[in-house]
């Protein structure tokens, strides 16, 4: 990875830069969903998302020669950012559930079709976290 030029590393940084840029303008309150018993403490979100974004970027970089993998990873980043906008900025919690469901499908597709085993492993925590997010989002609209 040290031999890569800046133009080759953009896939690694795109998820975290995109996600945190959108989140800067559409801040999710620390107490969002705090009444749900299965919700992790708010500090967990600040810890886990940078890790998940970097792992997504590393997976994307490992699959950069695969045109379909490139498309699916970029779609995943788009959907993650779209969820922040729809859920928080637009306050459309119900639509947020559908966006998470689509994101889960995209991540599962990335895992299934990834050209490298380590790329698949890098996406597994994101898939697990999205399943938790889906359940939390679902319970907020009930």
TrEMBL record:
InterPro entries with a match to the protein in the record: TspO/MBR-related_sf (IPR038330), TspO_MBR (IPR004307)
Subcellular locations according to the entry: Membrane
The protein's name: TspO/MBR family
Organism: seawater metagenome
A single GO cellular-component term on record: membrane
Transmembrane segments: 12-30, 42-59, 71-88, 95-115, 121-141
Membrane topology (UniProt): Multi-pass membrane protein
Record-stated family: Belongs to the TspO/BZRP family.
Keyword vocabulary terms for this entry: Membrane, Transmembrane, Transmembrane helix
Pfam families: TspO_MBR
């Amino acid at each position: 990875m040290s031999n890569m030029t800046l133009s080759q590393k953009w896939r690694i940084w795109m998820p975290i830069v995109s996600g945190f840029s959108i989140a800067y303008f559409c801040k999710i309150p620390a107490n969002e969903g705090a009444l749900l018993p299965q919700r992790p403490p708010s500090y967990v979100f600040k810890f886990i998302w940078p890790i998940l974004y970097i792992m997504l970027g590393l997976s994307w970089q490992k699959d950069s020669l695969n045109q379909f993998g490139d498309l699916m990873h970029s779609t995943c980043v788009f959907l993650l950012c779209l969820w922040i906008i729809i859920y928080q900025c637009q306050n459309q919690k119900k639509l947020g559930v559908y966006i998470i469901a689509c994101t889960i499908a995209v991540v599962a597709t990335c895992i299934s079709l990834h050209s490298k085993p380590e790329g698949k492993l890098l996406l597994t925590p994101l898939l697990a976290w999205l399943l938790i997010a889906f359940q939390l989002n679902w319970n907020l609209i009930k």
